[in-house]
Amino acid sequence: MWEKVEQWDRELFVYLNSLGIERYDSFWIFVTNPQHWIPLYIIFFIFFFLTFHWKKAIFTMLFLLATVFTTWGFTNLVKGIALRLRPNNNPDLSEIIRILQEPTNYSFFSGHASTSFAATTFVVLVISQKTKWIYLAYIWPLIFVMSRIYVGVHYPGDILVGMLVGIIFAILFFQLYQKSGRSLY
């Protein structure tokens, strides 16, 4: 059964990756770089200061950072256990897919997906009581994770599991945040 799931994952990856258009390669390479999203991270922090007084804003920022770094650490732990080759490093696929990046670490599960969904979900949970517009923040991780398939470094299964892990960590940290920060309300 697991072999069948991996086969579907590979076939879906090859199909989605093949939809790439060379004219848009530079856009997707730009999008997939986490450093290019620093302005968005700053906007998240600004939201905290606009929504809460400074003590609670700093407290919330620290919890967001803890959420992201814990998710990142867990992701790397699992990658070291699962040892799944990235599509760009898979000799069976390298001749039939578009490869725009060539990382050499492992694929399962996507750190871009887990950390971006952890950050976004935590921010949404914290701020959604103040504004429903914050749900638009999910546009970022969706574009971010799509880029990983486009540049040839993650299977769809890596992305889906990463998304779920990120959301779960965000919910857990949000619950801890609520219990820890009662005195700041």
UniProtKB/TrEMBL annotation:
<dbReference type="InterPro" id="IPR000326">
    <property type="entry name" value="PAP2/HPO"/>
</dbReference>
<protein>
    <submittedName>
        <fullName>Phosphatase PAP2 family protein</fullName>
    </submittedName>
</protein>
<feature type="transmembrane region" description="Helical">
    <location>
        <begin position="105"/>
        <end position="126"/>
    </location>
</feature>
<feature type="transmembrane region" description="Helical">
    <location>
        <begin position="61"/>
        <end position="85"/>
    </location>
</feature>
<keyword id="KW-1133">Transmembrane helix</keyword>
<feature type="transmembrane region" description="Helical">
    <location>
        <begin position="37"/>
        <end position="54"/>
    </location>
</feature>
<feature type="transmembrane region" description="Helical">
    <location>
        <begin position="133"/>
        <end position="153"/>
    </location>
</feature>
<feature type="domain" description="Phosphatidic acid phosphatase type 2/haloperoxidase">
    <location>
        <begin position="60"/>
        <end position="174"/>
    </location>
</feature>
<keyword id="KW-0812">Transmembrane</keyword>
<dbReference type="Pfam" id="PF01569">
    <property type="entry name" value="PAP2"/>
</dbReference>
<keyword id="KW-0472">Membrane</keyword>
<feature type="transmembrane region" description="Helical">
    <location>
        <begin position="159"/>
        <end position="177"/>
    </location>
</feature>
<dbReference type="InterPro" id="IPR036938">
    <property type="entry name" value="PAP2/HPO_sf"/>
</dbReference>
